[in-house]
């Protein structure tokens, strides 16, 4: 077993931990004073990973399963898209996976023989955390990696080992796109990278009270997109606090299991959009590029760049990408009454008007979210109070809610949610 012979599975996640554990297991736990990997340090690193990712059981095997699930290479990405198709790539992968299986068979409990009376590795061979949650993965992915670890342990030969790994890639994907649902852009003006968002708010469409027509329109477009049919870019516009952003988050949580991913993009990052599209166009996922609270001052010219990217540039937008945006403005670009006086000096007035309206026209679906009236607002309060176990006389609840909204932003779903939070804080 020589990990230096790995071909596809190189430059692994947490490579130093992998190399240290491999060296330690190869030498049967023996280590020279002041040289080689430190058994206690490696044990500490495995425990830290277990705490971050929610691993349990044999931490060494969980770590190897995590390494395999995370590593993006020619074979894993190919399996993600088409499954294992055989051929040269599959045979090369099998050679690497044979090495991984040998590592998998190593019993880390043997490492305790060199540590004296402290049964560190016996504990890590059957690790039971106090908290079974994960700071990084959603529960579904965390559980699946643990299941993958156990399935790989039971694999009778390299072929069975490879089938389990390839099946994971096909079903769940690989790397950051397979193991995460939401992303943001890290941009240093030289290189734009897509980085996972660890903690995504768990909101679903049923959690949003009212706006049934709006939610239906949004889900119909998203369903078409997920199923590979024609779908449009979407603009959600309207009053503040009406649930536009929450609907986007809900859509992600509703359709994540069917391969939907979201990338959050800010206005100052529009220049990186072409690079982002190139990075995701060949992956086996559906991506929504999400732009929250989108609007422009007349002096800001980024909207012209966005127009070209959405539609009209030489490059074709990938079929697995849509743009969903929210805004409080219907036409996105700020307009003033003084603009009318300026138009008097324009030779081609219509051209100027069309220039400002052309961006919103690039969104095939526009959905309006209006502020609720008093009755709708009270209904939202009533539903939210019931969900949170708040038991108040209905008339008293409405009176208190009405007083709250007068000084806290007016009639909106956000105001209603804040009022309920206020009641919970009081212990009602």
Short account of what is shown:
This protein is α/β, with parallel strands linked by helices.
- The CATH class assignment of the largest domain is Alpha Beta
Sheet/helix structural class:
alpha/beta
- Percentage of helical residues? 40-55%
CATH topology of the largest domain: Rossmann fold
Largest sheet: 7 strands, mixed
As a percent range, the share of strand residues is 5-15%
Structure description:
The protein is of the alpha/beta class. The protein contains 18 helices and 7 strands. A 7-stranded mixed sheet has the order 2-1-4-5-6-3-7, sandwiched between helices. Strand 1 and strand 2 form a beta hairpin. Helix 5 packs across helix 8. It is globular, with a radius of gyration of 27 Å.
What secondary-structure arrangement, pairings included, does this model have?
Elements: H1 15-26, H2 39-53, H3 59-70, H4 74-82, H5 87-105, H6 120-124, H7 139-154, H8 158-172, H9 175-179, E1 182-187, E2 192-196, H10 212-226, E3 234-238, H11 244-255, E4 260-264, H12 273-280, E5 286-291, H13 302-310, E6 321-327, H14 338-343, H15 349-361, E7 365-369, H16 374-387, H17 394-407, H18 413-425
């Amino acid at each position: 077993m020589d990990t230096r012979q790995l071909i596809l599975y190189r430059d692994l996640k947490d490579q130093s931990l992998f190399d240290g554990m491999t060296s330690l297991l190869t030498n049967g736990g023996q280590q020279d004073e002041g040289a080689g990997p430190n058994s206690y340090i490696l044990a500490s690193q495995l425990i830290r990973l277990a705490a971050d990712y929610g691993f349990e059981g044999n931490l060494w095997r969980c770590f190897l399963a995590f390494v395999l699930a995370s590593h993006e290479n020619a074979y894993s990405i190919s399996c993600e898209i088409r499954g294992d198709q055989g051929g040269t790539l599959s045979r090369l992968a099998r050679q690497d996976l044979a090495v991984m299986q040998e590592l998998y068979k190593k019993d880390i409990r043997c490492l305790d023989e060199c540590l004296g009376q402290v049964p560190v590795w016996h504990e890590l061979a059957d690790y039971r955390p106090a908290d079974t949650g994960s700071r990084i993965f959603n529960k579904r992915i965390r559980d699946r990696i643990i299941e993958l670890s156990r399935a790989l342990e039971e694999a009778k030969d390299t072929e069975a080992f490879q089938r389990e790994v390839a099946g994971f890639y096909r079903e769940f994907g690989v790397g950051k796109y397979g193991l995460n649902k939401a992303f943001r852009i890290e941009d240093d003006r030289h290189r734009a990278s897509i980085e996972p968002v660890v903690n995504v708010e768990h909101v679903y469409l049923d959690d949003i009270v009212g706006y049934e027509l709006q939610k239906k329109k949004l889900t119909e477009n998203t369903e078409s997109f997920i199923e590979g049919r024609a779908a449009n870019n979407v603009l959600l516009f309207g009053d503040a606090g009406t649930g536009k952003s929450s609907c986007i988050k809900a859509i992600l949580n509703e359709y994540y299991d069917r391969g939907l991913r979201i990338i959050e993009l800010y206005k100052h990052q529009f220049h990186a959009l072409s690079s982002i599209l190139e990075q995701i166009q060949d992956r086996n996922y559906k991506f929504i590029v999400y732009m929250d609270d989108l609007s422009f001052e007349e002096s800001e010219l980024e909207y012209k760049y966005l127009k070209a990217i959405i539609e009209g540039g030489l490059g074709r937008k990938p079929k697995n990408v849509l743009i969903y945006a929210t805004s409080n403005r219907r036409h996105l670009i700020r307009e003033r009454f003084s603009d009318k006086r300026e138009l008097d000096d324009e030779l081609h007035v219509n051209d100027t008007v069309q220039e400002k309206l052309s961006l919103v026209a690039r969104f095939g679906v526009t959905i309006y979210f209006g502020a609720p009236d008093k009755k709708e607002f009270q209904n939202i309060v009533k539903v939210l109070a019931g969900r949170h176990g708040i038991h108040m006389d209905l008339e008293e609840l409405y009176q208190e809610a009405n007083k709250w909204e007068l000084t806290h932003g007016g009639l909106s779903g956000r105001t209603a949610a804040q009022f309920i939070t206020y009641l919970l804080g009081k212990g009602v």
